Amino acid sequence: MNTTTTLILQAVGFVISATTAVIVLFIVLNGLLDRTPKHWEKRLRAYAFIGPAIALVSLFYVYPAFRTLLTSFLDAGGNSFVGLKNYLSFLTDENIHTAILNSVLWTIVAPLLCILFGLIVAVLADRLPARWESLVKSVVFMPMAISFVGAGTIWKFVYDFRPPSRPQIGLLNGIFSSLGNDPQAFLASNPLNIGLLIWVLVWMQTGFATVLISAAVKQIPRELLDAARVDGASELQVFRWIVLPEISSALTVVLTAIAVVALKSFDVVYSMTDGNFRTEVIANRFFKEAFAFRQFGRGAALAIVLMLMTIPFIAINIRRYLARRRAQ
């Protein structure tokens, strides 16, 4: 039996085992609750079924977070307490400075570009016949079906560079060469390479932005738009004073969601440049510190920094959710 067959059988066995465990747990909990007094059953039923989920979240999310926080105060081997030394070392490390700066750049540029392109596609597609609208949205959404590593590999071939004496297999350099220009090492040219890497994320996430924005646009009452046009408002004024305010909630969701994805961008950078040529980001640097350099304390500290950078976006979504609950 070869390795592939073994892995497939192991995966199938895991799925069957997990499904069986869930069914058994459901039966056992139901049986126990049926035997409790009625006045306790209603109170305990919700906690009984949500309890396993809370336990799993605590085991796989909360505990690792606290463990990572503790490790960030330890030395490279994770044995001796060094206090804030790992965090303070970032102040003089140029590689960390580059990683933080690039991560901030990803977090600003990628969501804004996704919103821009998503808005353009959503508004223009809304004017098309239904079948053409679905086709356009499907084409734009299609890159989301590709993994980040797959997308990075695809675009690495697009940006590929070979010496002028060799045939160019990269699409961009193929076009450059056919026009009589010398091929360019796009991924080695800073800061151009940062923009080219960010574009891969924008290419993948624009479909997500388009779907959410399009759904919000369709919720705008047609009577409101028609009334504004009858009153003499231009299409630009309708978009600025009616469409944008009406879809502001959807824009906030898209902005925060893609910002978090951009902050965690590891796969694209790792598969295309591995952080070389000043393209380092925090997630990729964390991986190097922890698993390449075996500096577990610094790696954990970088993970905590990354987690802290995501908190504002999570807080925005929580505040938005609570405000909507109060409005209801």
Structural class: mainly alpha
Give the radius of gyration.
25 Å
Note the overall shape.
Answer: globular
N-to-C SSE string, H for helix and E for strand: HHHHHHHHHHHHHH
Q: Helices and strands in order, then pairings?
A:
Elements: H1 3-34, H2 38-71, H3 85-89, H4 94-125, H5 130-141, H6 148-158, H7 171-178, H8 192-218, H9 222-230, H10 235-246, H11 248-263, H12 267-272, H13 282-292, H14 296-327
Task: Provide an overview of this structure.
- With 328 residues, this protein is an all-alpha fold.
- It has two domains: 3-71; 85-327, MetI-like (MetI-like fold), CATH 1.10.3720.
- 75% of the residues lie in helices and 0% in strands.
- It is built from 14 helices and no strands.
- It has helices at residues 3-34, 38-71, 85-89, 94-125, 130-141, 148-158, 171-178, 192-218, 222-230, 235-246, 248-263, 267-272, 282-292, 296-327.
- The protein starts with a helix and ends with a helix.
